[in-house]
Fold:
Amino acid sequence: MAASILSTRPVTITSPKSESMDGELACTVLRLMSIAADMQTSCEPLEIAFLTYLTNFSKAFIGTPVLRTSKLFSLLAESLNLPDQLTVLDAFVNKILKNLKVFFNNKTIIKETLKTFTELSMGYSFGHMLVKLDTIQYLLRNHAESLEFFSFPQRLNLRTDYYSALSRILSTYIDCEAENDMLEYFMLTFDRAFQNLCSIFQPRDYSLLKNDNSVKSTVIEVARSLTGLLVVTENKEMFMCYFDYIFPHYTNVLQEAMNIWMDDVDVTFPILKFFGELVSNRKPRIEFEVTSVNGILLFRQLSQIISGFVAFLLSSQFSNDSSQESQKNRYRGVLYSINILVHTLGAKFVNFGAFKLYGDEALDKVLNVFYQVISTFQLDWILSFNKLAKAYYSLVEVLAADHIYYLATLDSNAFHYFINSISEGFALMGRSSSNDELAVKCCHALDSLISHAVKCLKKKTNQVDTGLILAIESCKELLVQMLKVMLNAVIFEECKIYWSLSRPMLAIIILNKKYFDEAKNYVIEQQSNERQPMFHKLFDELMNGLDGSLSQRNRNQFNKNINSFRRDVTNFTKTAPPEEEGAIIGESDSIMIF
Structure:
């Protein structure tokens, strides 16, 4: 109840009376919390209520102007010797740490405690106050000490949340201190763990290691902990500090662990999630010196890990198991692998030309993983999982943008699968915002692919470019179908991605106007005889001002034409007699119906 009062309290409105009430309420709750702590018993609802109150109190009173809360803290000072925001925050942190030690066997309390810790670690004012506390500074130096909840295998995933909160605090601490050795102290625990693993992995019978649960648990723990550090790190300088510790010493050990426990998803999945986070170059946060080879070396290592794991994932040993748990693991394995492919193949820290120049097969191995996936899994299966569909279309977008020459080398079936998957992505458009997001990725991929083909037609092409053009021409029916779907969205649907749609539409028109004429005629034929002349006129106006190129000026002009075209069609159809409204959309063709 006290927490609910705080959650509904206006932040900017206060008075001496309300401050006194807030202070008395806080004193009562904190006294009760102290009594409960002395009893050393676990009352789950009460502990969760305490944590909710701490969170709401922090949001309402910690980091706010002192004058506005002076009466409240005066009462806390008189009753509990908590005179200011810093001492109250220190009491909250001590409560969190005590929960982690005392209630280590209660997953619900531990989970809620970590949630509260995460809330406190977020935000500028909280972070700068936390790093002033001796308790926090001790915790950063001894973050793995006496935390028994780590010892429960079923709660290993909570390590990621714990280290995510610590990573935020550590980053703030390093920003505040010009010169400090806190990062070195913080990473010392990981250094020792990996040195121990490295000595264990020295030439030894792997069959014995596979059954060593202690070593296995250590691998899982460090993988999840490192993932927690990286997942919240967006500052480039901080990320590169972590990277210098992690690569190559830590990654070599984790690669060895992948080889040992390849058939154990409890080990491989946390390691794959770690590598996926390590190569995620958002913001961007990964930046190597001009003379650094780290990008190439990291990519080569990931090439070995992913190609080996996917080969096992698709092997009969794994795929023949039809149990629900096995199929779930198969889905997760494909998802994690594709996410890593997206991050690595779309990375801006690797010069992929170096691999071909020096005959290195690392890039070919990674690209072959995509071929293995589309050769094994039906598109319907991929689209049945939202996360997997998003990852797959992100990969399609990256391949079309940065590895188009690889697409030109695909066999006809694989290339048709690639183009058909883009077509299916367009067919999902308009059903939900997430499906529109997939359609935008399809727009980018198709635009990159067709725009490259247009450029090839306007210059002397090599054998690879000729192969790409022929492959695209072999998918004529799919291209026309996609144009029909895009035109239908522009004319008849409440579509929010007109700008994205206009780019591949123009590229296809420039590539071969016959494709557009066929799609246009189809739409016109769906109209009544009285409407057809006007639709002919509107389609002709759609091409006004275009010069037959893919210049930015031409693209902008086509986008303007699309907007005018949609407006004119809407105004025209509003004047149609009611009995003719049903003739607007051709109900006989499935691609026109959503």
About this structure: Residues 1-153 form one domain. The two ends are 48 Å apart (CA to CA).
